[in-house]
Amino acid sequence: MEVLVLLTIVFCLSIVLRRSIRRHRAQTTFHQIVDTAAAHRALNEKANAFSNRPAAIFPVVLATGLRGQRNENITTVNYGSHWRALRCNLTAKILHPSRLIFLAPIQREATQALVAYLSEQVWVAGKVVAVRDPINAAVFGLVARLCFGDGVDGRQMRAMELVIQDFIVSMGELNPVFDGSTMCKIMNWRRLGRLFAFLGRQTKLFLPLINARRQPDSRVCSAGGIVDPYVDSLLDLRVPDNGAGRRALRDEELVSLVSEFLGAGSGSVVACLEWTLAHLVDQPDILDKLRREIDGETNAGGGVLSTRSLRGLPYLNAVVLESLRMHPPVPFILRGVHGEGAAAVGATTMPMPSDGLRVQFVAGKIGRDSKTWTDPDEFRPERFLTGGEAEGVGPMPGPKEIRMMPFGAAHRHCPGTSQAMVHIKCFLAALVREFEWAPSAEDCVGGVDLTELDGFFKVMKKPLSVHVTRRTCTV
Ligand code: HEM
């Protein structure tokens, strides 16, 4: 009799356990899309069904305040009126292509600062330099000026750069394992604790700078007053208040939006610049061809390379696109979908978590889909030139097909695409024009190590160290 009771208990427990494992798996498994045709079927043909990110996953969970109040940023908020208000503000006030021309003076200052720093490091004889940190400092400085204007001193700038860097590393550690479940929170309590500490540091650092912008007298803009900082637009913004009119953004929301702007605007650009330099060092013939184009344009402009002329350089454009195709800085593009969306990716039989089926578009594999690309693992910018297999392909996919998606696609595509492309081209052109780049002694033997590391961003596993020499005669 006792044995029977025991067997019944074991049987019931095994059913409960199996059910909870199945539920956990359903909540945590991502349905992966790795080819261009499937990405097009989902994101272009069923765009509306693919307009949200999964609500329970990181970092959406962290966007929820301790008192249950969600502190959304553009990435985390669901498609709807709140998202529209935040995104339209960023696009219209800061990122609109018509505003790019006004960025030229502060872009020039940022590239000049990077060139000056590297020149000081390498002098004429040349030296092996780890390039990620100096590039990050220059790009971050530029993005921080767009965010806060010119009122931030060097010490505050460095502190912000460090806290965003730590935050990105910490998110990258958590991203592959975090699914929002209680079990996962318990198992990763240490990492979560570290992340919350970074969030606390961000608030301490950003809030006084944000509050300083509330004082009309202390408002300093960038580029001689032409570029209004992002924070000012956020302070002026009124978002829908659950059907009760409109309201100003809360402090926690402001901090989250500023953190998103600084992190998204700098980390991805730095990753792309490092990957592109690595390929140029690895393939000197491509570097020479690019330099000839840049020198030619600089000569034609009387020694000056304007933002407008940069945009017209076909080989520079091709080099950057090829880098983004092979190493998209954001490795995974996430969606949470129901009904029609699940059917579009052929996942109707999968158990559906309450926040939708988790779909992950693997941008690196999509950019190297062998059904779309010839020799996809080869760095060959020529494919983007006239007559090449990717002639006419740009950073954003068109409505008819998806061949690569480094900036995502459909409703939630990256609003910073145009600005990012201009930033990347500006820095890259200056680095190629002013310096000679060659592999370090170690890389001369086996070539540059192009192993990828997928964290929050796709970065070089072994940060690029390269022999840099100042060019004595640039044009
Ligand atoms: C090389 C540079 C960049 C890359 C590769 C990149 C890539 C991406 C990707 C893949 C997404 C997700 C798109 C999707 O889900 O379909 C995204 C979203 C986003 N990016 Fe970028 N990005 C870059 C630069 C920037 C810049 C400069 C900004 C602004 C300062 C920015 C702001 C954002 C925002 C706010 C979102 C969320 C959009 C939404 O959910 O509506 N990004 N980015």
What features would you describe in this structure?
The protein has 475 residues and is mainly α. It has one domain: Orthogonal Bundle (Cytochrome p450). It is 52% helix and 9% strand. It has 17 helices and 10 strands. It has helices at 2-28, 36-44, 81-95, 104-122, 132-148, 154-174, 182-187, 189-212, 230-236, 251-282, 284-300, 307-311, 314-326, 339-344, 363-367, 417-434, 441-446; strands spanning 31-33, 127-130, 238-240, 246-248, 332-337, 357-362, 435-439, 452-454, 458-460, 465-470. A 3-stranded mixed β-sheet has the order 1-6-5. Strands 2-10-7 form a 3-stranded antiparallel β-sheet. It has a two-stranded antiparallel ribbon with strand order 3-4. It is globular, with a radius of gyration of 24 Å. The mean pLDDT is 88.
- Characterize the main sheet: 3 strands, mixed
Number of strands: 10
Note the beta-strand portion. 5-15%
Helical stretch tally? 17
The CATH architecture can be named as Orthogonal Bundle
Please outline what is shown here.
The chain is mostly helical. It has 17 helices and ten strands.
Keyword list:
475 residues, mainly alpha, Cytochrome p450, 3-stranded mixed β-sheet, 17 helices, binds protoporphyrin IX containing FE
Break the fold down into its secondary structure elements and pairings:
Blueprint: H1 2-28, E1 31-33, H2 36-44, H3 81-95, H4 104-122, E2 127-130, H5 132-148, H6 154-174, H7 182-187, H8 189-212, H9 230-236, E3 238-240, E4 246-248, H10 251-282, H11 284-300, H12 307-311, H13 314-326, E5 332-337, H14 339-344, E6 357-362, H15 363-367, H16 417-434, E7 435-439, H17 441-446, E8 452-454, E9 458-460, E10 465-470
Parallel strand pairs: 1-6
Antiparallel strand pairs: 2-10, 3-4, 5-6, 7-10, 8-9
The structure holds protoporphyrin IX containing FE (HEM).
Protoporphyrin IX containing FE (HEM) binds at residues 74-75, 87, 260-261, 264-265, 268-269, 272, 329-330, 333, 406-409, 412-416, 419-420.
